[in-house]
Amino acid sequence: MANPIEVLLKEKRTFKPPKAFAAHAVAQPRIYKDATNPVRFWEKEARALDWFKPWRKALEWKPPYAKWFVGGKLNVSYNCLDRHVAGPRRTKAALIWEGEPGDTRTLTYWDLYREVNRFAAALRQQGVRKGARVTIYLPMVPEAAIAMLACTRIGAPHNVVFGGFSPDALRERIRDSESTVLVTADGGYRRGGVVPLKKNADEALLECPTVKTVVVLKRTGQDVPMQRGRDVWWDEFVKEAAAYCKPEPMDAEDLLYLLYTSGSTGKPKGIIHTTGGYLTGVTATTRYIFDLHEGDTFWCTADVGWVTGHSYVVYGPLANGATSVMYEGTPDWPDKDRFWRIVEKHGVSILYTAPTAIRTFMRWGEKYPEQCDLSSLRLLGSVGEPINPEAWVWYWRVIGGGRCPVVDTWWQTETGHILITPLPGVTVCKPGSATKPFPGVDAAVLDDHGKPAKAGYLVLRQPWPGMLRGIWGDPERYVKQYWSRYKDIYFTGDGAKLDEDGYFWLLGRVDDVINVSGHRVSTMEVESALVDHPLVAESAVIGRSHEIKGQALAAFVTVKEGVATSLELGDELKAHVVKKIGALARPDDIIFSADLPKTRSGKIMRRLLRDIAEGRALGDTTTLADPAVVASLKAKYEEQE
Ligand code: PRX
Q: Which of 48, 125, 292, 312 has its Cα between 20 and 30 A from that of 299?
């Protein structure tokens, strides 16, 4: 029998929204027409929020800086909580949480409101004022959302650092943001083990003089040292706090949060997001793209340490008064059916996950989802990297039972919210294509000269409300990174092509950023971690294709004179990268090379390295220890350049 996915791909190139779904969808076809004046469209969406003071001007665009809803005042936690507890959503589940060991908690809007108020009041009591940065380094527990919302309540911008980052990476982010408070936990559960968050934090804090207070949540109960005068348990911290904390009226353009992401240099950049535009963007996109109805249970599987967790676990769903599911652990703990057990148990109706997860589920086999009742699902989403058509169709057929629309959503940390996406009741989907720009978004594909092209660089020609407002402390890098390729046009760093129907097909990054399992890793960051090792002279890191992760890291390493290479040294180098950055940056391959092939101008020949790593240029990579082999490969490639 032929492979059912191949059959589907051959027979069905396009997927129309099911009629019954389309009839009741939040987004109807006229939405594109309604957005022919984008500013007016976004203004209408902004009006769906509660403002303490209306804006004077919807958009002020002085490239490369945009201001949205100028003069308007609002508060994010007020929009996510107060306005819901004032009505019938008071007793509705806001967060349904499941810990990896199987413990669960449901927080109604009222519960969440109380918790957020208390934590916000405690922060304020501690002297945290509007504008003071708070770093959050927590596992996926409700307190992560509580801490974030509490920060927004008092106008203290948060800086959430993914719990998988190393002490070094945490330190860099605390220092750059000059945070005065760190919120962490004793540990978190992951794949049956414990992530030692407090221990990592203590190591990071050795060189973070700005941090005066560390709030520690008890999650695992393991023994952790507490530094007197600095560290305080979460429960103690909120014990005396007032039950109500007045929300700070924030200017639409006040800083809401910083989120660090990898760019094409060694140093992560603190992406700046502000209040009014960001909340408008995430609220509208959540409602239309995920077709939110009152009874939905929405599960975005991203960690709150990433932008997807910010926008679609916390702010988008809660601003809409939806029920958001949070899960602490990995999909294979205790078994490979964990995600489907969660869907079944909580009646998840909308699932938003990453292609790398979908490909992993495909490999594990259909028996795991088949064991569970997935009939509550009605919509599926994908984000983080290009989804291959096979994975798209598998997701649609096996997880969605052939009845749920699939939305492949393109966006970035910098964009704040989804920008290219199908609308589930409207768009005819083509597996592998993120389809069309969201209403009010002006995306285009340009060639080197800035002319519209069928294939080239993905750009955004007009500002959108959730766009970044800069890089923290580095305005020059902001201009250089995003605004210097084309005049007054935002450069995404992605390649894309357009098909005959004007559908966008994302091709991947065109800079030195590698997308590993949907997470951005900069080659330079990994290279600097490698050369930080005392035995390494030089290194070049490239992304090679990988069946599950999309891309994997291959590191070419030249060791110092007289150092013997070995498998053990390779493992040691991988561990060194994990220590410097975190497990997400662990190279899959360490390839020792006598020297690194470079062009005459000194640029590393990355195409050659990619061909070697993918087995096209050389079978046995151990021969790279011979300088003559490198030289001859280089000569061959130079002829072709
Ligand atoms: O290359 C694109 C890829 O992920 C990058 C953004 O990464 P990050 O800021 O970590 O945010 C990830 C989640 C929003 C983009 O530049 N990317 C994201 N979504 C897609 C994608 N590539 C193709 N298709 C997507 N749907």
A: 48
Give the angle subtended at the CA of 336 by the CAs of 332 and 337, to the nearest 5°: 120
For residue 508, list its beta bridge partners. 495
pLDDT score of 568: 97
3-state helix, strand, coil in the chain (%, to 5): 35, 25, 40
Tokens encoding 247: 């929300």
pLDDT of residue 4: 65
Name the residue with the closest Cα to ligand 1, atom 21: 385
Atom 18, ligand 1: residue with shortest CA distance:
384
pLDDT digit string, tens, across residues 515-563 = 999 999 999 999 999 999 999 999 999 999 999 999 999 999 999 999 9
Report the nearest atom of ligand 1 relative to the CA of 420.
26
Would residue 550 be called left, alpha or beta, if left means φ above 0 and alpha means ψ between -120 and 50 degrees? Answer: left
Are 406 and 457 within 8 A, CB to CB? no
User: Tell me: domain 4-495, CATH 3.40.50.12780, correct?
Assistant: yes
Ligand 1 center to 577 CA (angstroms):
23
**Residue pair 183/213 in contact by the 8 Å Cβ criterion:** no
pLDDT of residue 334: 97
Cα(434)–Cα(386) distance, integer angstroms: 8
Pocket of ligand 1 contains residue 509 by CB under 6 Å: yes
CB 385 near ligand 1, within 6 Å: yes
Angstrom CA distances, 304 to 163, 307, 371, 481, stand at 9, 7, 29, 25
Q: Ligand 1 pocket test: which of 285, 494, 504, 525 has the largest number of ligand atoms within 8 Å of its C-beta?
A: 494
**Are 177 and 472 within 8 A, CB to CB?**
yes
Is the Cβ atom of 386 under 6 angstroms away from ligand 1?
yes
Distance 495 CA to ligand 1 centre (A): 11
339 within ligand 1 shell (Cβ under 6 A): no
**CA–CA gap between residue 562 and residue 132 (Å, rounded):** 50
Number of H helices, E strands in the chain: 23, 29
Tell which one of 301, 359, 385, 510 to mutate to probe ligand 1, the residue whose CB is within 8 A of the most ligand atoms: 385
- What's the pLDDT at 609? 92
Q: Would you place residue 639 in the very low, low, confident or very high pLDDT band (cuts 50, 70, 90)? A: low
Does the beta carbon of 259 sit less than 6 angstroms from any atom of ligand 1? no
How much distance in Å is there from the Cα of 42 to the middle of ligand 1? 23
To test ligand 1's pocket by mutation, which of 264, 506, 514 has the most ligand atoms within 8 angstroms of CB?
506
Q: Which fold has domain 517-640?
A: GMP Synthetase; Chain A, domain 3 (3.30.300)
CA atoms of 406 and 434, how far apart (whole Å): 10
For the stretch 318-337, pLDDT in tens is 999 999 999 999 999 999 99
Return the domain boundaries, the chain.
Answer: 4-495, 517-640
Distance between first and last Cα of the chain: 45
SS3 98: strand
Regarding the beta carbon of 408 and ligand 1, being less than 6 Å apart is answered yes
State both tokens at 198. 């407090």
- For the Cβ of 522 lying below 6 angstroms from any atom of ligand 1, the answer is no
Chain centroid to CA 283: 17
